[in-house]
Structures are given as C-alpha cells and as structure tokens.
Amino acid sequence: MTARILKLAGSAMIFLAMTLAFATAQENTLAPPRKNAFDYTQLAKVPSKAAMRRNPIENDADSVAAGAKLFDLHCAECHGDMAQGGHKAPSLLVRQVQDATPGTLFWLLTNGVVRRGMPVWSKLPEPQRWQLVTFVKSLAPADRPQNPPDAPNDPRPPGDR
Ligand code: HEC
Fold it and tell me: Model confidence over 29-59: pLDDT tens digits?
C-alpha cells in the first residue's frame, strides 16, 4: 500500500516537474519584451505625506526649461528624448505619471526604484529635482500630437503594432 502511494506520489512529482519545465520554456520563448513589464505600481506606494508636498517652484517660469536640460542630461538615456519610454524605462507621458502629484514624483526621484532599474537622484539638489518634476508634469499627453492618447505607452513605431 505504502509503496503504491509512494509510486503515485512519485508520478505526480514527475508530472509536476515536467509541467513546470514546459511552462518555464514557454515563458522564456513567449515572454513579452522588458518594456511591457513596467506597470507604474511604485507611484501608488509613495507615502501620502510625501505625495502631498507642494512643488515650491511650480510657478517659476524658468523651471520647465531648466528641467528639460536636466532631463536631457540625466533621464533621456533611459526614458527617451521626449520621455516617450524605451527598452530601458517606461514612458512618462502616460496618465499614471501625469496624474501623479508633484510630491509623488519628487519622492520617486529622491528614492528611485532601484531594484527595477530606476536610479536614486537624491544627490541632485532639491531645486533641481523639483525642476525635473515641473518639466515632467509639463509633458501632458494632450500637448503632444506625436503621442496619440490611444497608445500613450507604446514606444514601438506604428508599423510594428
Ligand atoms: C538607468 C535608466 C534610468 C534613468 C537614467 C532614469 N530612469 Fe526613471 N525609471 C527607470 C525605470 C526602469 C523605471 C521603472 C521603475 C518601475 O518599474 O517601477 C523608471 C521609472 C520612473 C518614473 C515613475 C514611473 C514608474 O514606473 O513608476 C519616473 C517619474 C521616472 N522614472 C523619472 C525619471 C527621471 C526624471 C529621471 C532623470 C532624473 C530618470 N527617471 C532617470 C529607469 C531610469
């Protein structure tokens, strides 16, 4: 009896192992490209006190231009020249980012999402981080005809869709 149960259990294990191996192989070949793995969940995890922080330079006329320069220097390499996203990092033109409060974006810059490839920017002086926030918030999708609202987070050219 015991032997029979053991044998049964053994077959079940082999079956499970094979299913797992098959599933893993499928995953490896059918896995979506890395860019589809971005889900913006970190934005929802920002502590509410940090999220409520006001942007002290929101109304500073030069901060969008200053932020644009900083973006070129530090961010475009991963997020794309127009913040449209790419292989390394998600688009910042999507609603999840554009609807985030300035404080949320500031916190995200300050803390990064290191385990998912977004660096920490706490070494940039605070005013520069706020300039970056101001710049990113100025990129609302509606202002950008090259970023149609039906595919705001798809970095592929229209032909590849
Ligand atoms: C080395 C590549 C890299 C650089 C450089 C970089 N980022 Fe990111 N960024 C990422 C990745 C990867 C994510 C996605 C993190 C995740 O999945 O949560 C991200 C996420 C974000 C998000 C939030 C969206 C989300 O996914 O939650 C914002 C906002 C952002 N980055 C802004 C910036 C700004 C502004 C700069 C320049 C100061 C910058 N990033 C530089 C890789 C980068």
Answer: 554 445 456 889 999 999 999 999 999 998 8
- How high is the mean pLDDT of the chain? 82
Quick check: 152 and 89 in contact, CB under 8 A?
Answer: no
Longest dimension (CA), the chain: 82
**Residue 96 · residue 39 · CB < 8 Å:** no
Q: Ligand 1 pocket: which of 78, 105, 133 to mutate (most atoms <8 Å of CB)?
A: 78
Domain residue spans in the chain?
Answer: 1-31, 38-160
Please answer whether residues 74 and 121 qualify as being in contact, where contact means their C-beta atoms are separated by less than 8 angstroms: yes
Within 6 A (CB) of ligand 1 lie: 38, 40, 42-43, 74-75, 77-79, 88-90, 92, 97, 105, 108-109, 113, 116-119, 121, 132, 136
Atom 42 (ligand 1): residue with closest C-alpha?
118
What percent of the chain is predicted at pLDDT more than 90? 60
For the domain with range 38-160, which CATH number is right: 1.10.10.10, 2.60.40.290, 1.10.760.10, 3.30.70.930? 1.10.760.10
